[in-house]
Here is the input.
Amino acid sequence: MGAPLREGMESLAAEVQPALRPMQVADVARVAAIEAASFSSAWKPHTFISLLETSGPELWVLEHPDDGVIGYFVLWCVMDQAELANIAVADGHRGHGLGAVLFERMLDVGRKRGVTSVYLEVRASNEAAIGLYERFGFTQIGVRKRYYDQPREDALVMLLRL
Here is the structure.
């Protein structure tokens, strides 16, 4: 009888909740490292810094109390439309629902900005991301032929109406 209680307590202790907050310049090195590990055509640190200096995009990070920044997203907002430019979770933290946590915040941020439509492009072969997007209600509305480099691949264009 003691083992199930102990296991339950251990799992509660293991469930440390990461915090979501706006990205800061101090986060850029870690964000750029996650970006480089996640995408073959990764943005450079100066790209994130320049975006932090403008008022249009929303840049947010997911910060773990022990591991620091473990995920981020970049959302371009223009009037009532938005484009999810980038979203990623650090290797070692994937597969635990953290992408969905980031995604929920991204949608909340968009709604607060008055966004009614969110667009994104995703590699046609990225089944995990496509599945996540579809769970949130995105539908495919087009294909951009040979959109991605390294390797050359089509992008699916997806849309969510809020």
The helical segments are 2-14, 28-38, 45-52, 98-112, 127-135.
